[in-house]
Amino acid sequence: MGDRTGNDHRSLIKQVLDDGAGPARSALAASWRRSMTLYGLDPESRGQVATLTEAQLRQAREAMEPVTRAAQGVLDRLFLAVGDAGCCVLLCDAEGVPVERRGAVCDDETFHRWGLWPGAVWSEAVEGTNGIGTALAERRAVTIHRDQHFHTRNTGLSCSSHPIHDHRGRLAGALDVSSCRADQTEAMLGLIGAAVADAARAIEAQAFRQAFSDARIVLAGDAAERNAAALLAVDRDDLVIGATRAARLAFSITDERIAAQLAASEILGPGSIEADLLEAERGAVRRALALNNGNVSAAARALGVSRATLHRKLHRLGLAEPHGAAH
Known about the structure:
Shape: elongated
Distance between the termini: 73 Å
Oligomer: single chain
Structural class: alpha+beta
Helix content: 40-55%
Number of strands: 8
Radius of gyration: 25 Å
Strand order of the largest sheet: 2-1-5-4-3
Largest sheet: 5 strands, antiparallel
Order of helices and strands: HHHHEEHHHEEEHEEEHHHHHH
Strand content: 5-15%
Number of helices: 14
């Protein structure tokens, strides 16, 4: 879709919303309808993007700190992948406010003018249909390309956004990649959307690991579903103390079930727990041997067991005794 004048764009929206069949029932039309009827917005509004005060932005950043801390490396890598295509990367809170940004210095002035900047408010209630706000409103990945935006003033933008959930599975914000280049194709947007989805899942997983740093983190589900980030945090008694949103959806895990002492074996099956514990023990023995240059006696002392016990563990775990190691 290309740029439209204000009247053309408003006519398009009105035509789609007046049509009771087909496109009028689409997700895009539903967002346009919310923008016009629920929020009372005008497509031809010429106002600028609403912006928080410095104090409000500082408060929003403090509230997002756990997610932002987990996201730093992911944001850097995502920008390396999309920056040369004239895109900026935005990490937004649940109100649609960017709290963290990655962008090329040469593009800063342009993106600042468009409002793709920390402190701007991109909620659907304020800006109508847009990548960030609509992804948050519908809690799903969204790409809004040029004149799919509600406001005429935003029809030069292309935005791919994905919701982000915190360590308790609650909506925390959204990850967005936006471009204001006219040559941005829908095929390229598809690739960007996939990269944004992978990055959002990586942020969720990292935030979850940081929140439960003292627990054992277990992947729930088949290996083929690893990208779903279905992770469990399990304590020493093999009770589930945390679950990502993907795990909650896949296994009907709720805060109430966790509070009622949910056994990990109920989710993973009894065999999975033993296998996971065995792998954890195998890793601990390997580390002890490596840190002690293969010396079995020293490794046994580090593990708090006798040398004979460690010999039995090596046999049980299928680990070869270090060749020529001191005893």
